[in-house]
Amino acid sequence: MAMRILWVCNILPPILGEKLGLPGSVKEGWISGILEQLIQEPEVETLGVCFPTNGPARHMGTKLQVGEKEVCLYDFTEDTVHPECYETGLEQRFAEIFDHFSPYVLHIFGTEYGHTLAALKAFGKPEKSLVGLQGIISLCAKAYMADLPKEIQQKRTFRDWLKKDSLLEQQEKFRIRGEREKESIALTGHVTGRTQFDKDAALEMNPKVQYHPMHETMRSCFYTGNWSLESCKKHSIFFSQADYPLKGFHYLLQALPKILQQFPDTTVTVAGNSLVQFHTIKEKLKISAYGAYLRKVMQENRLEEKIRFLGKLEAEQMKQAYLNCHTFVCASSLENSPNSVAEAMLLGVPVVAPTVGGIPSMVETEKEGILYAPGNTEALAEAIIRLWQQDELAQNLGAKGQIKAKKAHNGINNYRKLLAMYQEIGL
Q1: pLDDT for residue 276
Q2: CA within 20 to 30 Å of 88's CA: 184, 244, 264, 392, which one?
Q3: CB neighbours (10 Å) of residue 273?
C-alpha cells in the first residue's frame, strides 16, 4: 500500500538544508539517516517534512527533489530558543498544512516543543498519529537540580536576572514543557520508544496508547572505528555535555579528587563551550549560577588545569573525542536513552553511567559497562578507578558494549520496524 507520511521535526534535517541553502542542524543526525532510506522506499508514495523557523513561514508544500523522490516541505514559525512558550497560532498553521498534504500517518519526533501538542490538536486523529519519545521532560523536570545545594538552586547571577533564566526558572520551564508533553501523549494513539523507562512513562500518561519499540539509528560515522587501550590517552575522561544541572557535571567534579589520589595525571575533556571561564568583566557578567558553582568546585579542588572544554563539535570531532578517552562518563540525574552513551558503545569505549531512567535498558552493568547508584560520587570514582586498574575489564566491557550497541542501533533493522509501523498505522 502506497503511503503519504508527514514528519514534524524539531530541526531542519541537514540533507534538506543543503538543498535549500539553509543551515541544517547537526543535532539529531539520525533523522537524516532515516530520511535517506525513506526517499528510496517505494511503499512511501509521498513524504512531507515540517520544520521550525524563527522567521516567517515560507514553505507550504515546496517540492524538493531528493534522490529519486520529491519531498514536500512545510515550515512553521516557532521560538525554539524558548520552548516553554506555546504559540496558539501553530494550531492554525498545522491545520492548513494537513489540509494541503492529507497525511495517512503523522509522525512527530519528540515531545520537547509546543509544536507537538499543536500538531496533535490540529490533526485530531490519534489513530493515525505517531509520536517518537526522546527525553521524558515531565520527569526530567523533577530531577533537574541533581542534588545541587539549596543555596545554589536559589542563586541568581546578573546573567540569570537579565535573561530571566535562573536555575529555578529553568526548572519551571521544564515543568511547563512536561505538562504539555502529558497532554501530547494523551492525544496520540501511538508512540515509539526504546527503554522500559519510556514505555512505563508513556503508559502512565496514556494507558490506551500503543507502544512500538524501536531504537534510534546513530550518525553514520559512529558505525566505523574501534576504541583501543593502546591508542587512547590513559587516565582521561570524556564528558559529552555540561550545560545544565541535569547532565550532572558537578557529580564528576566531586568524584575527581578521589580519582586523582590514585591517578594524579587524570584529565577531563568536555564537549561544548565552557560555562566556567571568563577573562574580562563583561565575560564575568555572562556567567550563570550553575557555571559559577562549577567554577567554585573546580577552584576548591584545584581542578582548573585538569578540565578542558572542547567547544561545539561536529560528528567526526565527537567521534575522535570518544576514541581519545580512556573512559566515557555519563553522570546525569535522569536520561531516557542518551545518544552519547550509544555513540560511545558503538565505538567500543568503556562506559560508566548511573542507574537512572532508561540507561539500564542500554547497559547491563559489569557486562557492557559499569553502572553506579545515581548521585553517589564515591561509587562513580570507584568505577573509573576500577577500569583504569583493570585493563582486561575495560577492554571486555567496551567490546561487549559495542556488540550490543551495533545490534540495537542497526539502521536496516530499525528502518524496517519504522516502515512496519507506518503500514500498520496507515491501514
Answers
A1: 85
A2: 244
A3: 12
From the number of C-beta atoms within 10 Å of its C-beta (0-12, 13-18, 19+), residue 197 rates as: buried
Residues 6+ positions from 5 with CB-CB distance below 8 Å: 38, 44, 46, 47, 48, 103, 104, 105, 107, 422, 426
Give CA–CA dist 213/193, Å, rounded: 5
Query: Distance between CA 181 and CA 205 in Å, rounded?
Result: 9
Is pLDDT above 60 for 24?
no
> Rounded to an integer, what is the distance from CA 193 to the centroid of its chain?
13
Question: 213 by DSSP, 3-state: which?
Answer: strand
Return phi, psi of residue 140, to 5°.
-60, -35
Q: What is the pLDDT of residues 290-339, one digit of tens each?
A: 999 999 999 999 999 999 999 999 889 999 999 999 999 999 999 999 99
pLDDT at site 1? 54
- Read off φ and ψ for residue 3, nearest 5 degrees: -120, 150
Taking the C-alpha atoms of residue 333 and residue 171, their distance in angstroms, rounded to an integer, is: 13
pLDDT over 90 (residue 220): no
Per-position DSSP letters for 61-81, written without gaps between them? EEEEEETTEEEEEEEEE--TT
Fill in the DSSP letter of residue 209: P
Phi, psi of 272, deg, nearest 5: 105, 170
**What is the value of pTM for the model shown?**
0.92
Q: Which three cell numbers stand for residue 276?
A: 566556567
Selection from 15, 9, 2, 4 nearest residue 64 by Cα: 15
Average pLDDT across the chain, whole number:
93
Q: Choose among 115, 153, 144, 147: nearest CA to 11.
A: 115
